[in-house]
Structure formats: C-alpha cells, structure tokens
Specification:
3 helices, 2 strands, mainly alpha, 101 residues, disordered C terminus, two-stranded antiparallel ribbon, single chain
Length: 101
Amino acid sequence: MGVRFKKSVNMQTRDILLAELNDYEMKMPMNKLEREELYKWVASGNSPYASCYHFDSGWPMDYVSAIRFDRDIWEQQELEIPTQHDDCPNDSISGDDDMVF
C-alpha cells in the first residue's frame, strides 16, 4: 500500500512527508491497521511525528502513539473503538486523491 496524497498537498510537502514517513517506519514498529491509519494521516498533509495530542511536556505525540493512546482509553471504558480520529483536522482521505508514492 502506498500513500495516496490529497491533491491539495503540494509536491515539496509530499517529498518532505515521504522522507519523514520512511524514517518513521524504520523506527516505529506497527501493525497493519496502524500503518493504514498512518498513511491516511500523512496523505492528508500531516507529519507522522505529530498528532492532535501532546505529551505532558508539551511536545506533540507522534501519530501511532496517539492511535494507541486512543485505543487504550476506549478499551478501558469498554466502548467501541472508532476507526478515525474525528477530533483531528484533515485526518481522512476524501475523493480528491491523485498520486500514489
């Protein structure tokens, strides 16, 4: 599976995000579902090293850690886990995809 960037993500940003993604994937072990969600996040123009959450220190939480944090909270509350993070802007792929890298 490749990253299908939204048309609104310019080529320079795509290059930066792909470099970040490659680096991130080498450092962060993840399962298939986490990788799929990460690709959607990056395809929307977001860095894999950032999310809507921040650590207590104020630093942004990376995206896969945020997914895991959400999953742990939902499991503790015994609720159904959502497939997308609706509270984060630009985190889902819409129909305006154009290129796969």
